[in-house]
Each structure stands twice: as structure tokens, then as C-alpha cells.
Design brief:
Layout: E1 3-8, H1 10-15, H2 19-31, E2 36-39, H3 56-66, E3 71-74, E4 77-78, H4 84-97, E5 102-107, H5 124-139, E6 147-150, E7 155-159, E8 173-175, H6 180-189, E9 192-193, H7 200-216, H8 221-226, E10 228-237, H9 241-256, H10 259-264, H11 275-281, H12 287-297, H13 302-306, E11 310-312, H14 314-327, E12 331-337, H15 341-359
Parallel strand pairs: 1-2, 1-12, 2-3, 3-5, 4-5, 5-8, 8-9, 9-10, 10-11, 10-12
Antiparallel strand pairs: 6-7
Protein name: Luciferase-like monooxygenase
Organism: Candidatus Nitrosotenuis uzonensis
Keywords: Oxidoreductase
């Protein structure tokens, strides 16, 4: 089954929407047939000083109370700023409040949410893997079934939570993975994959790694069949696709500037550019890194960058989604950009979704 959702992410934060406006948009999405609603987890977005950045778990609880059908999840929370017991309980609580619609989207974290708050960003992937192990243990815990865990970063001693999720066996875990190690972890621990900033070629390449990992880990055929290959994708409706693309292509290239994109598309890496340092030290308030990033991103060809976003009329947008479906996407999480946010939600639901719902029912 093909699914479509909306993301309350940088697009909503940048627009500075009020809580009431966000809830109205979510009610609209629920009523017009979307399958899911997601909320980003950032401390701030310093490049946009007038943005409004809210806590995802609190907002998702409010969204749960005002919607009826959509699945609800974080896109994504990170495994560095919170203890895994806190994340597990938040996900269970959301699932209960929403009557079985809760989902946990989770990643290793990023420097932007950590550096300025002096939160250590050491060994993020190793910490994330332990978090996943702890969260899964706690999902199945109770006063009658206490759990122990002895890890390098986290320890549990006869620990338990005292609320059972409605979704069985637990709220699905969607993982934001983009490196070979984390992709293999996704195949081992995840119920879904939720990347951002992808071309169809990169999505197809990475999906193969996840599928191979699931088989290696002995995941059941049912788990493999039900796995959600999601994608966080940008949509910008416009009557003039070329004019709109010209305005946004620099930002799109920046979002794609990562070694895996360069590898898959045979783009020569920038000599002397330290990607490891870039990902662990970059903060959007650091002008030096912003300049380096923009310079590096110019090497990405327009055609490659444009394949990652949907710009123009509904007729322009549909082929982009078709290409990603061919690459393996079965759940789209959409960030709508542009001045008419509510209109975009409605236009996609009325002009694009019916085409795919009929074709992939």
C-alpha cells in the first residue's frame, strides 16, 4: 500500500505558523486522505531568526487530539539529547493518546541540535544502536517483566515502564539512516526507513543495503514485506516550474551535499573537504561551514539535484513521485513549500494522490 504524509518541519518553522494554524493544517490533512503526519525535532533553526520551533512530542499530542485517522510520528527525534527510557515512554504515550496511531522516527542526531548547548556528540552511532536496544527492551517491559541492560553508554537494572502501547508489538520505529553502518542497523532494528535529501538513484542503492541486512538478520518474511521505505521529500507547487527551480536550486544542492550522493552519481569529491568533521561540527550558525558547504554543493549537476524534489504543477510533480516509487519508496512524507501551505495540502490531495491511489491500490 502506498502512503502519503505531511511533515511539520523546516517549512512550517520558517513560515512562523502559530500552533492553531499548524493544527488546522493537520486537520485538513486528516480529512483529505493523507496517511500520516510527522513533526521535526530541532532545538532551533538559527539561520531563520523569526522561525517558530516547537517541541514535537507536545505538538503531536495536540495533533492526536484533533485528528482521527492519520498515523503520527517524529521526523525525526534524535538519540543524543534524551535518555532512551524517555523516548520509549513518549512514543507509548503518543500511541495511547492517538488510540494506536503512534510512530517513533529516530536518528543519531546532528551537530546543530547539540553543539551550541554543549551536549557531547561523541560516538553518536554507537549510542544510537544502544538506544534502539534499550527502547525495544522497555517496550516489552512491565512490573512483572523487568529488564536489565549492560551497555557502554546505557545501563538498566530491573527497569520497567508501566504503560502498554496499543500498536502491536510496539509503535513502529522508522530510522533516519544514510551511511552504510546505519543502513545495516535499519535492517536489523527498524520497521521503516525515513531519509531526507535523496535522489532516486541513491534511494534505490541504499534500499538494497537495508534489504540485504534484513535477510542477514533473519527478519521474518512478514517483517520484510511490511517494512516502510519512506522518504522525506520537498514539494513546491508553481505555475512556472523553471522560474521556481532557479530560485531554489542552490538550497537543494546544499541538502544533497553528502558523500553518498557524490558516490552514486560519480561526482568528484572536493579536495580537502572533511565530511566527518562537517557532519559532527557543522552548525547553521557557523558561517565558515555554510560557505564551505555552498561551495562544495555547486559541483552537483542541476539534473541530479532536480531529481530529488518536486517542483511545478501537479502534472510536473507526478513523474518525480513515479520515479521514486520505481526506486522503492512506499511512503512519502511531504514538506510543502511556498506561500499557500494550506492550498498545497489540498491541491496534492485532490490532484496528485488520486492518481497514485488508483494506480497502486
Amino acid at each position: 500500500m502506498l502512503k502519503f504524509g505531511i511533515q511539520n518541519g523546516l517549512n512550517v518553522a520558517r513560515a512562523g505558523f502559530s500552533e492553531d494554524q499548524i493544527l488546522t493544517a493537520c486537520i485538513l490533512a486528516d480529512r483529505t486522505g493523507y496517511d500520516s503526519i510527522w513533526y521535526m525535532d530541532h532545538s532551533n533553526v538559527p539561520q531563520w531568526s523569526k522561525a517558530t520551533v516547537l517541541d514535537p512530542w507536545v505538538m503531536l499530542s495536540a495533533i492526536a487530539a484533533t485528528t482521527q485517522k492519520v498515523e503520527l510520528g517524529t521526523c525525526v527525534t534524535d538519540a543524543i539529547r534524551r535518555h532512551p527510557s524517555n523516548i520509549a515512554l513518549a512514543a507509548i504515550t503518543l500511541d495511547r493518546i492517538s488510540k494506536g496511531r503512534g510512530t517513533l522516527g529516530i536518528g543519531a542526531g546532528e551537530a546543530q541540535n547539540l553543539k551550541e548547548f554543549n551536549i557531547p556528540f561523541d560516538n553518536p552511532v554507537s549510542k544510537w544502536e544502544e538506544q534502539l536496544q534499550v527502547i525495544k527492551l522497555l517496550y516489552g517491559s512491565s512490573p512483572e517483566h523487568r529488564v536489565d541492560f549492560e551497555g557502554k553508554y546505557y545501563k538498566l537494572t530491573q527497569a520497567c515502564l508501566q504503560a502498554k502501547p496499543i500498536r502491536k508489538p510496539h509503535p513502529p520505529i522508522y530510522m533516519a539512516a544514510g551511511g552504510q553502518r546505519t543502513l545495516k542497523m535499519t535492517g536489523k532494528y527498524g520497521d521503516g526507513w525515513l531519509p531526507i535529501g535523496y535522489t532516486p538513484e541513491l534511494f534505490e542503492d541504499h534500499a538494497k543495503t537495508i534489504k540485504a541486512s534484513m535477510k542477514e538478520e533473519g527478519r521474518t518474511q512478514e517483517e520484510q514485506d511490511n517494512f516502510q521505505y519512506a522518504l522525506d521529500i520537498d514539494v513546491y507547487f508553481s505555475e512556472d516550474a523553471e522560474e521556481s527551480w532557479a530560485k531554489m536550486k542552490e538550497a537543494v544542492k546544499v541538502s544533497l551535499f553528502k558523500p553518498e550522493v557524490l558516490r552514486v552519481h560519480n561526482i568528484k569529491q572536493i579536495e580537502g573537504f572533511d565530511f566527518k568533521k562537517y557532519f559532527t561540527e557543522y552548525s547553521m550558525s557557523n558561517q565558515d561551514w555554510i560557505i564551505k558547504m555552498r561551495e562544495g554543493a555547486t559541483t552537483i549537476p542541476d539534473a541530479v539535484a532536480r531529481s530529488s524534489v518536486a517542483v511545478g504543477t501537479p502534472d510536473d510533480v507526478i513523474p518525480v513521485f513515479e520515479r521514486f516509487i520505481k526506486a522503492g519508496v512506499n511512503h512519502f512524507v511531504i514538506r510543502f513549500w511556498g506561500s499557500n501551505y494550506f492550498g498545497s495540502i489540498d491541491k496534492f490531495a485532490s490532484k496528485v494522490m488520486p492518481y497514485f491511489k488508483e494506480k497502486h491500490k
